[in-house]
Each structure stands twice: as C-alpha cells, then as structure tokens.
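Reopening this one. Same input as before:
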Amino acid sequence: AFSQDFKHFVIPENFKPAQVLSFIKLSDNHLIKEKKLHYSIAEKEDDHFEIDSLTGDIFLSNELDYETASHFLLQVTIKDYENTPPQNTTVFLSIDVEDQNDHSPHFQDDFIVIGIEENVPIGTPVYTFNAKDGDGSFLNSKIKYSMEMNSLGENPFLIHPSYGTLITAFPLDREITASLLLTVSSIDQAINLTDRKLDSLTAKIVILDVNDNSPVFTSSPLSYVMENVEVGFLVHHIVAKDPDEGKNGQVTYHILSGNENKTFVLDKVTGLLSTSLPLDRETQERYSLTIMALDDGIPALSATQILTVVVLDVNDERPIFLKQFYETAVRENQDPGEFVVMVEAVDRDSGLNSLLQYEILPGSGYGNFRMNSDTGKIVTTISLDRETEEAFSIKGNNMKYLSRPVNGRGELLYITVLDENDNNPLFAKNRYEISMRENLQEGSAVMELFASDEDDGLNGEVMYSVIDDTFGAFAIDSVTGSVVTTQVLDRETKSVYTFRVVASDCSTHLPRSTTNKVHLLVLAENSMNSVLGEVMVWIQDVNDNVPKFEQSYYKASVWEGQIPKTDIIQVFATDLDSGLNGETEYSIVSGNENGAFLIDSSRGILATNTILDYENTSSYRFVETAASHYLVLLACDHGTPSLNSTATVLINVQDANDNPPLFNNPQYHIHVRESIAVGSRITEVSANDCDVGANAEITYTISSGNDKGHFRLDGKTGSVDLIKALDYEDTVKFTLIIQAT
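Same output, byte for byte:
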C-alpha cells in the first residue's frame, strides 16, 4: 500500500545547523509509537537537510543562504516494517527559506570623481549611483539613496532615492564653486529598522569650466602722463581679470579706437601701454582709447573700457597777446583812473603755467598809465591834456607767474588822446583900434581880426560874428574875420564906432567863445591936400540919469510887537549911468522922526528899528513931497553933482491881540429891593479893549457868586438880569465876579 501527504515549512535563513526543524507525523492514527518505522529522504540532491531515520526528526545540516536557494522540496519516505509486505508512506515537505537581511548594500568604488560642465540646465542627470545588495527578498535588497555635502552652503544637486540618479537642482557656476564633495549613501529597506544596512561612497563633483565670463577690467580708466616724456615711456598698465579657467581665462589686450595717429602702442599680452610718438598737451590734452580685453575661449568673450589718458602740462609755451598791435583812444581831462584799454594775452599751457602777469615797460609817457598786473587793464594815472601831448606809444609785457618767470613778447600800444573843447578861442590882440577915412567905398576891408583855438577839429575851428549894433556900417566875414564896410561912412553923422566881435569855436557840444571890442574912428576929408591924423575919441559917462524907483508908491504891512531889524519891504531904484554915477544909496529923509524904521543904504531893505505898537501909531507914510509931517524915502547916486528921487511907502501896522479888556469901573455897587420882579434888569457892565477887530470883541461871563442862580448875564451886552426872586432874610448881599474876555 502507498499513501502520500504534503507539509509546508518556513524557516529563517539564519536557522542554525543541527537544529531540529520538525518531525514527520503520519496523518492517520494507525501508526503508533510501537511501530517500527524507517524515515528517509528520497532522491536527496541537497545536503542542507538530514532526517533521523528512526524518529523522523528533520534537522538542518548546513547553513542556509536565501540568495543561493530559497526553496526546498523534500520527499520523505516512511517505511513501516511491521506490515508484510512493508507499507510505504510518502510525505512531501515544502520548505521556504525566509530571507534575513544579512547583506549590506555595496558600492563598487569608495571614491569616484564626476565632471560636469557648469552651464548645464537644471534637472540635468549627472551620474547614476548603483549599489548592490546580496539579499534576495525585495525589501532587504531594495535600496534607497541619499547624499550629504561635505561643506557648508547650498547643495546644487539632488539624488533620486530609488534610482540613485544625481541631477542638478540649481545653476552651477564654476567661478563660485569649482568642486564639491558629496557623501552618497545606500540603505536597504528591511522591515526591522534596526536590521537595515547601508554603504556609502565619496563623490567629488568637479564643475567643468565653460567660457561664460567676459574679462573684467580692474585697472583704472584714467591715466596721467607728462607731455615731455620720451617715446617708449610706460603710460599705463591695463589689467583685466577673467575668472574662467585655462584658455577661457587667458586675456589679450587690443586698442579698438582713439589711437588713429598711432600715438600709443599696447602689448597685447602684458597690457603695458607706452608712447610711440612725442606728446604735446597744447595739441591734444587728452586721449580716449577704447581698450578691448579678449579671452581665448570658444566662442571668445570680450569687454571694453574707455581709457582716458590725460596729458599733463609742462611749461613749454610762451604767452602771446591776442593782438599784435593795440590802438585805442581816451578823452582828455578825465579823472585819474579812466579806463583806457584791456590787453589780453594767452598761454597755451594750463594751470599755474598759464597764469600771467602784465606790466608796462619804461618809456616815454609810461608813467601816465597804470596796468593791472593780473587782468591787463590799463587806466590813466593823471588827467591827460591833449594840447600837451596828443598820443602815446607804450610797450607792454606779459610774464608767467612762476618762480622762474618766462618773459613774453612786448607789444606796442598806441593811445590817442581825444580832444575835449576845453580851450576858448584867443584873439591875437586884446583890443583892436583903427582910424579910417569917411569916404571909403562900400565893401572896403577895414581890418583883419584873428583868433586861434588850441583844440582840435571842430573844437578848434573859429567862426566870427558881431554881437553889437554897428548902425548898419560894418559886417564881418564869419570865416576869415575880415571887417568890411556895408555903407559909405559919414563922420558928421557918427565919428566913432565901438562894437564887440565874438570868436566862437564850432564844437557841437558846449561851444566856447571870446568877445573883443573894436574901436573905429572916422576921419574928415576935404578936397585939398591935408594931413591925416588919427585921433582916438573916448566917450566918457556923464551923470545925466536920475535914480528911478521901480514904483512911485509902495504899500507894505508889519505886525506890531515884532523884534527890531524885522524886514518889511525891499525897494529898488535903477540908474542908467555907469560907475559911481550909477551907484544908488537909500535913506529915509522925513516922517521917521521917532526912529521907528531904518533902511539898508545899499540894498534898499526897509526894516523895523523898534518894537511897533498898533495902538500908538497906526500908519507911517514916506512921501515924495517935502512936507514936514511926511516921511520921505530917498534914492541918490554918487555922481557929481548927485541926483536923487523919492518914493512913497505906506506901511500899515497890523494889530496883534496884545491888550486885555478893561472895565469902565472896577466895582459896581447896586442896591435893589427884595421885592423886585423877576426879569428886571439889575445893572449893565461895560469893558473896553484897545485892540481892533476880532481882538477887541468882548464876551462877559459870571465866574463866581451866582451859585444859587439868581442872576443872568448877557455875554454880548453885559446886561445883568434877575431870574430868581430875592429873599432878604435868606441872602442880604450878593458879590458877583464878572469876567470880560
């Protein structure tokens, strides 16, 4: 007989050898212990398991390895020798090896170097890490990857936890980070966390250079050089830095523009800029060179810089006047300090080298002028006179303002003094006298007058004219000064002519003139031979004119009370005579017996001599009659004999309020009955004032004594009236104080 059974076992991979795995039990109850059974593993090809032939215990004979064999199928045969023939029973044992995490993940290398270009985009795969795990089951051999950066800073990479692919997470820049070290770890995923195993390696990520940086200039864009340096002089060291690597960072230098005349030469490798031609600041004081720095990358990158080369001045230029010859004019008679001209020189040098000082070189007339040493302004030091010197030639000089002056070239300045009409024409003679016959033809030249004027141009050109009446007998040529007759002369009609001739210049602005007298004597002539003689007849003045007042009657007024010497009126008298015959003297000859007035004998000013009182004398009259009761104002000349005339002056003395009112009686005594009727007139007071007009108008008032109001006073008439009944028993006497104003 034959029977079969099937059993399944799971044993861990780390099950120790010699340990009993299980024992075989028959599935039916007909097998008992007492039975003689024999156990064996049929067709044994694997030596991992053994069975106790007597007991049926199965035990492990060799270590298990899940990764080598994870499943065993054993056929156990059980022979029962109690039966005849022996009965066999077959039991199939299915044994699954349960994997244990006994293998660690493993990288092939402990250290690797990975290169990646810096310009790769984000998300670019860089490297795939592959760790192996010898475990056979899924979780024990499933690997997750992680990484850490060995330095501070942001990690630009990410790693896929399952696939181990390293990718870029941020842009790379070799110039910032050229390389970095990453520790990449792999760990299996055993269920029991404590059983998990890991391995790690160090990866050096080298960022490969890409030509992504242009050169950057680090040298100054400004350079200075003296203009007198020799050819080949080092002007500037141009430096540009390129952070790229290798050829990408190798820089060469080139001049793109600004050096068209080849003034400079640039070493393209060292960046040394030198002169190749002589420099001249006055020709060109600065150069703007466009410099290019070019790297050797592919494609090549470049940068440009404007290098300004400033040529510094050397004192190698002479000052030069803006004009070779200055010509100007200044008016005569101006005050010292009058502006003449501003001369100006330039020096092509700069700074202190171009500062100039001016001076006037010694020479004729140079002291008449002063030059501002800083500005070149020339002014006069005196008032010039054209008639003394009409022109000046002056040498000027400019000098550099340095410790060792460099003389400039002297330049000529010609100054013309302009004429002012400051001279009168002058006659050749102070007086012209001539005698002539009365029978000269009309138009005959009598004499030649001549006047000269030192001024220039129209200011010195003289014209002649007659300003007095010649009675139609003479005229003068305005240009030549020739005096000619304009009619036939007759001595019996007029024997002497005297007239004035004016010589005037022709200035258009304030012309000047001189007057001279001409005396002409006309001689008698008969038909017989005669001896001619010249007789000068001078007509002398005779006192034949009486002083004459402008008015025959004057009227004036003066306030009373004025202080002595108060002017009242001024009178005038004229006398047509000349000299002493025409001098007039004033006096009061009558009407001033009390001496109230006085008169200025030369000026004719009539004034008070005392304090006048209107109330004593109201008027004074100075009359032209000889009445003793009148005052006479006399004007007489100093001729011999003296002539005179009189005039009347009526002076009214005007009233001033200088007199107080005076009562006719200082006291009034009035007796009345107590029964007098109200309204009755008591009395009338009266006062007089010596003044007149408004000054004599009097107003009456009761100043005291009328406290009870019994009386009324008329302010104009002085009438005192009763307005309240009297009572003897109450008041016996009233004393009224009345004021007149």
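So the earlier flakiness isn't reproducible anymore. For the record, The first strand starts at residue 2 and ends at 12.
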